[in-house]
Amino acid sequence: MLKAPPTAAARLYRVLEAADPGSGLALLKGFRAYLVSSYRSGGCAELWDSLKITGSDKSGVIKARVQHARDDRSLPDPVNRFNEDFGKALTNAGAGPIQFREIDGTDPGEKAVIQEYQVDGLEALQDAQRQLRFDPQGEYQTEETRTSAAWREEATDYLDSVDDWQGDPSNPLETAHEKSELYSALTDLALQQDLRWLAINKDLSMIENCGLENENPSAWMELMLELQRRIRYSGPAHETQIATPGFVPRLIQSSNASVRLTGLLSSLDIDPFSTGPLPK
Amino acid sequence: MPNSLTARHLLARYGRYIVWLWTGWLVIIHCASAQAQQGTRTAGPAAAGKLTKPVLPERVQAILDDVQEVPPELHADPLLLLVESGEKLDRSTKIRFVREAAEEAQQASAPVRMSSAVLLDGRDSAEGLDSVDYDRDLDRVSLLARSVIDMAALAPAEAWKLAASMVLPEMPPVGCSNALAYNPAAYYTALQVVSQRWKPTPGGLKSARVDLLAPAVSQIETHTQVTSALKLLSDPGLSVQEREALTSMFLDALARLTGDPRGRRRKC
């Protein structure tokens, strides 16, 4: 079984002890007091729960699980880890491992509220998208079907419907993301280059004109880069290039300066996904 | 009048040659002048640029022009990307770009990155989308931290000053209903990079590095800073005395850290 890498606290303790034996004791005691205080004062429900918590209402489940942990008198993972890392040193220091009774204080707080997207009209478009992807038997549409005139007509109608969809005018960011995903579904499915380009161009036009770059630059940039990401090959490094001819020139010719900038950076082979000193 | 006679004699004898020579001379001067003027027209801006700013490749110049039209975040990011990408630019240009990016970073609308404190299902929720958007590192702290790190490779003394001027924004506690917690890790990364490049100078302050790092380990408002501070303190480049002094400040701050329920991590 692989051993978990040392925690940041354990690493600092080791460095202190290596330089001057006994100098890590203050850290040990201070960090122990910090953990006890943190857990004793409750924290949020997820702090006690190591399982995945998703958007639907699971507060009852979480409460039960937290209660179970408390009934069971089991310690939360970080406290367990701390006890494992420093058990011997804690005993030698006369402090001992953290016991459940030390942290059994205030009840944990509520869990995070996750607002899942639900926009009027989205479901119908997603159904239309499914029909383009799957046949009535639930099988993937064949290449032959996806190059037929009938499929093409259906796909064009689908793109027009996405164009017309207003989404939630009070939430332009959410609407823009949903629209972008709807367009991109066709970018993935279309085998004919002109149809694929039509979907890409509509997506790009929406990003160019949504005005989000002033309101929320990070969100806008994510939309823009997501489009770029989608139309790149995900093969070996030498194949990683813009797959659709004319995409970068189209960006550079944009009337939107922010779009032009992404095109100019692409033309210099600057990849914002892998460039930069901060971990991505 | 022998002189006049001599001159008239010479003029009569060699006059045509003198006229040719004079005309030729005028033609040469005229052509040289025209050539010089034409040269100024074509190479003029480039020559003038050499005195002030080097001439940039066309696309880099286009980027420099376009960033003037966009919001501060989208202004700073391409300049930093140009420096970070290894694009062939001279050092002074890179320094100019990083300075400009650092100035723009101060105007970024999001003060600090927020990261998901609970597991989220991608982009299917407002919180998931926010978290993904923050990953672009276009907040004030992340852009400034990138500027400091980029500057450290170009002008360490200037990077030190820039790092010393970085201040974390106020991070009031977020409640448990919020799925995102503050994530100022980039601030700590930048300080660590600058600290690692520090060399004591004769006559310089011995406590310079402690002074630089002290705010990062002593002004802790959110639990998410704890792991970053621990990593900073573990840096092998610190002297024993520096580490002990900074660890002591950190433990004082840790004892004072209360509230901020959402910031508490399940790992530290």
Low-confidence stretches of chain A: 50-59, 234-241
Main beta sheet of chain A: none
Please report the number of helical segments of chain B: 11
Average pLDDT of chain B works out at 82
Write down the overall geometry of chain A. Answer: elongated
Domains of chain A, number: 2
Q: Which chains share the greatest interface?
A: A-B, 74 and 81 residues
Instruction: For the record, give the distance between the C-alpha atoms at the N and C termini of chain A, rounded to a whole number.
Output: 28 Å
Walk me through this protein's architecture.
The complex is a heterodimer of chains A (280) and B (268). Chain A is an all-alpha fold. Chain A folds into two domains: 8-103, no CATH class; 122-267. Chain A contains 14 helices and no strands. In chain A, α2 runs antiparallel to α4 (77-92). Chain A starts with 7 loop residues before the first helix and ends in a 13-residue tail after the last helix. Chain B has a domain at 72-256. In chain B, α4 (91-105) packs antiparallel against α6 (140-154). Residues 31-50 of chain B have low confidence and may be disordered. Chains A and B meet through α1, α2, α4, α9 and α12 of A and α2, α3, α5, α6 and α8 of B.
